[in-house]
């Protein structure tokens, strides 16, 4: 997994949730924004290569 659904942002225990995600070749990828998701969906191989470095 390359990102978590939730993570602790600071000691105040605020959490963020990610509603933006895509599946590609059996792997789920999570994004912080719709813009990032759209960029990934357009050219997934460009970004998958970076996660495997």
Outline the structure in words.
The chain is an alpha+beta fold and 53 residues long. The protein is built from 2 helices and 4 strands; from the N terminus they run ββββαα. The strands form 2 sheets. Strands 1-2 form a two-stranded antiparallel ribbon. A two-stranded antiparallel sheet has the order 3-4. Strand 1 and strand 2 (15-17) form a beta hairpin. Helix 1 crosses helix 2. The longest helix has 9 residues, at 34-42. The protein is globular. The two termini are 15 Å apart.
Mean pLDDT: 75
- The H/E string reads EEEEHH
Q: What's the Cα radius of gyration?
A: 12 Å
Roughly how many Å apart are the termini? 15 Å
Largest sheet features: 2 strands, antiparallel
In terms of DSSP E residues, the strand content is 25-35%
Helix content range: 25-40%
Any idea what the shape is? globular
Q: Tags for this entry?
A:
single chain, 53 residues, two-stranded antiparallel sheet, 4 strands, 32% helix, disordered N terminus
Topology:
Blueprint: E1 6-8, E2 15-17, E3 20-24, E4 27-31, H1 34-42, H2 44-51
Helix pairs in contact: 1-2
Compact summary:
The chain has 53 residues and is an alpha+beta fold.
């Amino acid at each position: 997994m390359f990102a978590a659904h939730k993570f602790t942002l600071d000691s105040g225990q605020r959490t963020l949730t990610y509603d933006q995600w895509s599946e590609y070749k059996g792997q789920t990828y999570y994004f912080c924004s719709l813009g990032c998701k759209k960029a990934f969906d357009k050219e997934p191989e460009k970004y998958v290569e970076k996660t495997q470095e």
